């Protein structure tokens, strides 16, 4: 039954993106979203984060020359700039000074750091060997996920799925690339999530939100 839920989630399109969100671009084929490290910046210098993809855009922050694990969720049309989150907003950084880490977001169930959504607030926290699902911060069940079914399986080339089953219920999760907003800040994420849960006392429910490959 749970596999049918996952198939259903893959077939049902997500709601239209919120007005004003940019499209997810991956010029250069980096397999975004992905983690990058700052590279080629002098030890006594910093890498500027700008409000837009270009040196004429205002600087809104900086990255240390040894900063690692920066999640790049999209590129601009040229492929020279990457979209990232800095504090409570999104900004752009020159990819000429960023080196991609190995690994793909769909490689395994532990690659995604977590998923979350609002209305109501829910979260799926990933730790080695288990995922924890909570509603309004209250844990509902902890379970070991099934192996990720990655892009290309069953003809779905832009989605990955995982299944979870615990004492208090079970869930089917589908993750696909796409610019996603948490609705609470100006941060943007590169993975959209659809989740079906069947929980004790709550029946079957459909949730939607965002996922990230770095800790929030």
TrEMBL record:
Signal peptide boundaries: 1-18
Organism lineage: Bacteria, Pseudomonadati, Pseudomonadota, Alphaproteobacteria, Rhodobacterales
Protein name (Swiss-Prot/TrEMBL): Bacterial SH3 domain protein
Keywords: Signal
Highest rank taxon of the organism: Bacteria
Keyword set includes Signal: yes
Organism the protein comes from: Roseisalinus antarcticus
Matches recorded under InterPro entries: SH3-like_bac-type
Domain SH3b: start-end pairs: 45-97
Short name of one Pfam family: SH3_3
